[in-house]
């Protein structure tokens, strides 16, 4: 796909994301139909489904040959990223959406033969859109984001991670994770993987670390973080498989190796 075509797809995707966000904002105080999926804390609402359906219809009408990989079941059944694939999380941070009515995002990554070309993460309530086209830099609304700091040290880093890392878990020894939490300047947990990627891209967090995410949680974030010089791997430092679930570590490269070598690998179970 040439850059003119990509720019057009970007503009189209952006206008749909803004439109879907506007719909969510106007309905934000309507009563919610909430269901659970894999466990009582795994929530889904009608709004998650309606939003995904909105994108699926628009995409299929406009680009019948494009494919969709998405969370709520309106996408295609795909087992490779061949062709143009829209990887969609209609609401990332559903628990926040339900309980807080804020701190959630629409996340869309558009991949061409496995390469992330476009990323869009829309913080709906704050009306802030993080976006990127590969090799063209990343933006927060109209403002270009600077490259990540080259001078950050681990002692001054802020890391995004949730508290399950400090509970008994199958991946890394809790004691090692406690040492990491004490080593860094601070930790944060926001409850939306997409927003946490966006904050790493913005440089207001230096890394974000998670045990298991799906492609739609990270597809947009990977593209956006890349554009500011950040790097995303699994927690062993290995390449992600974008059609499977992965542990995920997105980070400023200045502190990536030390966190992987001295903590995540050293404490690996
Ligand atoms: C979830 C959020 C959350 C992360 C979960 C995801 P959802 O996505 O990104 O921050 O910890 O693993 O499943 O279900 O709200 O789209
Ligand atoms: Ca979900
Ligand atoms: Ca998600
Ligand atoms: Ca979701």
TrEMBL record:
> In its keyword annotation, does this UniProt entry include Magnesium?
yes
Q: What is the lineage of its organism?
A: Bacteria, Bacillati, Bacillota, Bacilli, Bacillales
Entry keywords, A to Z: Hydrolase, Magnesium, Metal-binding
Source domain of life: Bacteria
Protein name (database record): inositol-phosphate phosphatase
Key word Repeat present: no
What EC number(s) does this enzyme carry?
3.1.3.25
Catalytic activity annotation: a myo-inositol phosphate + H2O = myo-inositol + phosphate
């Amino acid at each position: 796909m040439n850059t003119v075509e990509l720019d057009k797809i970007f503009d189209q995707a952006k206008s749909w994301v803004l439109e879907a966000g506007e719909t969510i904002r106007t309905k934000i105080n309507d009563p919610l139909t909430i269901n659970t999926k894999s466990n009582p804390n795994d929530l889904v609402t009608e709004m998650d489904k309606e939003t995904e359906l909105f994108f699926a219809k628009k995409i299929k009408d406009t680009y019948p040959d494009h494919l969709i990989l998405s969370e709520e079941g309106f996408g295609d059944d795909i087992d490779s990223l061949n062709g143009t694939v829209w990887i969609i999380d209609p609401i990332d941070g559903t628990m926040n959406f339900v309980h807080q009515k804020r701190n959630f995002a629409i996340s869309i990554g558009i991949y061409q033969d496995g390469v992330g070309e476009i990323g869009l993460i829309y913080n709906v309530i704050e009306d802030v859109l993080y976006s990127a086209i590969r090799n063209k830099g990343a933006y927060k609304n109209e403002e270009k984001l600077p490259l990540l700091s080259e001078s950050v040290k681990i002692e001054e880093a802020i890391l995004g991670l949730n508290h399950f890392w400090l509970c008994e878990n199958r991946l890394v020894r809790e004691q090692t994770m406690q040492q990491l939490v004490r080593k860094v300047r601070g930790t944060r947990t926001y409850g939306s993987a997409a927003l946490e990627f966006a904050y790493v891209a913005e440089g207001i967090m230096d890394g974000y670390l998670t045990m298991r995410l799906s492609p739609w949680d990270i597809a947009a974030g990977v593209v956006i973080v890349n554009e500011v010089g950040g790097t995303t791997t699994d927690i062993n430092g290995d390449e992600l498989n974008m059609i499977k679930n992965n542990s995920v570590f997105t980070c400023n490269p200045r502190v990536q190796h030390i966190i992987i070598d001295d903590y995540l690998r050293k404490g690996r179970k």
